[in-house]
């Protein structure tokens, strides 16, 4: 193996390890929430902010972090993010009370955004050849698609064998190792420079807008459509509208609007929002079904998810790039989404007296297959059309839409499931039957969202065949059917 290829492989492993660490942090803590609540005395509403503080900061800063990578150098921003993330993980593990843990989680989100927003741009730059790039994106996509499921397993194991503090301490050796290795295996990049300055007003508008949007979505899932949540979402919409207007006029825009004129970029980001809404909402609902209806503990719930990441690994690491080369990435994407929709439809048949291997296991196999095909194809399409100078902001954009989709899906599916369950309980229905009925409705919505994502992808990403007029054929020296030969 040539030295350059070996070094790139090690660099890819280092970058994807860091990315996986950040992704895991969104789900690994979820399993430990009951233990955290008991130890630190969280109220029930306050406990949600152990997760939400991280997600709000993370989602709000991704776009700014991606552009900073383009301007100041992606490796520099990546290393700064790792330092912040690793240090705040230590602070979270040592947190003596509820307030300090929430603050540490917010800072973790800041570090996670800085580190993860530029990873995809670095990978694309390292692998300019299409086939090698597709394989590298497959490895990255595995960390994104399977990370949450792996987090459930790791969170359950750490909480039950050690204690909740280790869901944060586990980041320390990983973060330090990546910090040490990165300067040796990842080449430094200069960036385009900060000479013309960064769009400070645009950064403030988009960061506050996305943070407020995330907060509003979370509150909608918890409190419903109250005047406060509607006002929050309206304020977020106003800030984001102001951001768009600012980008149209700024001399050095944070997010060049010309990127949305690229069909692959705009179509892939729209597809990502809808797809992830179905994917991540499914994980939330399934964890509740496994624990509240089938009676699995935290570790058992984590292990129950394992078929999905195994299948994601098989297809994203071994087959997705070959199929994309044979049939086109957009075709593989649509097929993967339709396979996933079938998996969610199978889950609409779950029962209160059902069993894991009968009702859940087959759907997880299908879901992993579909995600393993769809996610690498979608990420590759999103990144394929942007130039090197914009790869950081394009990476940050696709990660931002992924986070927005996750927040929307989790809040939406939790709301419809709770509404259905609450209505049945009010009529005196059995609790497990009512819960299961709510979960079935949520699974049906997941299937609808993923099907909609397939339609969006088919319309926006599958290349249209151009019909060539006969006059053009003649001008090109091509004989028409039945015409005289030359």
From TrEMBL:
What keywords are assigned to this protein?
A: Cell membrane, Membrane, Transmembrane, Transmembrane helix, Transport
- Major facilitator superfamily (MFS) profile domain spans which residues? 11-466
The family database entries (CDD domains) matched by this protein are listed as: MFS_MMR_MDR_like
Record's Pfam families? Answer: MFS_1 (PF07690)
- Keyword check for Ligase: no
Q: Where are the transmembrane segments?
A: 12-35, 47-65, 77-94, 106-127, 139-158, 164-186, 198-218, 224-245, 266-290, 296-319, 331-350, 356-383, 404-429, 441-462
Q: Note the superkingdom of the native organism.
A: Bacteria
Q: What is its main location?
A: membrane
The protein's topology relative to the membrane is: Multi-pass membrane protein
Keyword Manganese part of the UniProt annotation:
no
What is the protein's name according to its record? DHA2 family efflux MFS transporter permease subunit
Native organism taxonomy: Bacteria, Bacillati, Actinomycetota, Actinomycetes, Pseudonocardiales
């Amino acid at each position: 193996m040539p030295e350059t290829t070996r070094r790139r492989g090690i660099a890819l492993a280092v970058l994807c390890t860091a990315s996986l660490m950040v992704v895991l942090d969104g789900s690994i803590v979820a399993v430990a929430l009951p233990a955290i609540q008991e130890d630190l005395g969280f109220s029930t509403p306050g406990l949600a902010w152990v997760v939400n503080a991280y997600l709000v900061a993370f989602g709000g800063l991704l776009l700014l972090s991606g552009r900073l990578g383009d301007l100041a150098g992606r490796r520099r921003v990546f290393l700064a993010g790792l330092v912040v993330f690793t240090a705040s993980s230590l602070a979270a593990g040592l947190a003596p009370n509820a307030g300090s843990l929430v603050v540490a989680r917010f800072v973790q989100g800041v570090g996670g955004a800085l580190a993860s927003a530029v990873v995809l741009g670095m990978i694309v730059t390292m692998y300019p050849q299409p086939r090698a790039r597709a394989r590298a994106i497959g490895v990255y996509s595995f960390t994104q698609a399977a990370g949450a499921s792996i987090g459930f397993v790791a969170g359950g194991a750490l909480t039950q064998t050690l204690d909740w503090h280790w869901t944060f301490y586990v980041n320390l050796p990983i973060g330090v190792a990546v910090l040490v290795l990165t300067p040796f295996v990842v080449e430094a990049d200069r960036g385009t420079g900060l000479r013309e300055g960064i769009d400070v007003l645009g950064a403030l508008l988009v960061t506050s807008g996305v943070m407020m949007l995330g907060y509003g979505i979370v509150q909608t899932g918890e409190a419903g459509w109250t005047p406060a949540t509607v006002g929050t979402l309206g304020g977020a919409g106003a800030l984001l509208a102001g951001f768009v207007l600012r980008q149209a006029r700024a001399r050095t825009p944070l997010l060049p609007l010309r990127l949305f004129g690229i069909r692959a970029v705009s179509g892939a980001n729209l597809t990502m929002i809808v797809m992830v809404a179905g994917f991540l909402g499914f994980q939330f609902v399934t964890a509740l079904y496994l624990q509240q209806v089938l009676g699995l503990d935290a570790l058992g719930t984590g292990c129950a998810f394992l078929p999905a990441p195994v299948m994601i690994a098989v297809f994203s690491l071994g087959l997705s790039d070959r199929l994309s080369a044979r049939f086109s990435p957009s075709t593989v994407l649509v097929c993967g989404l339709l396979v996933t929709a079938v998996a969610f439809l199978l889950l609409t048949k779950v029962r209160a007296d059902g069993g894991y291997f009968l009702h859940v296991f087959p759907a997880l196999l299908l879901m992993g297959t579909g995600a393993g095909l769809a996610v690498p194809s979608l990420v590759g399409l999103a990144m394929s059309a942007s130039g090197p100078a914009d790869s950081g902001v394009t990476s940050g954009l696709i990660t931002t839409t992924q986070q927005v989709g996750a927040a929307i899906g989790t809040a939406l599916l939790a709301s419809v499931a709770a509404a259905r369950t609450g209505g049945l309980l009010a009529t005196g229905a059995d609790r497990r039957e009512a819960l299961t009925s709510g979960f079935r409705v949520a699974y049906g919505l997941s299937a609808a969202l993923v099907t909609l994502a397939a339609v969006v992808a088919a319309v926006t990403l599958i290349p249209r065949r151009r019909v060539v007029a006969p006059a053009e054929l003649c001008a090109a020296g091509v004989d028409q059917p039945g015409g005289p030969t030359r």
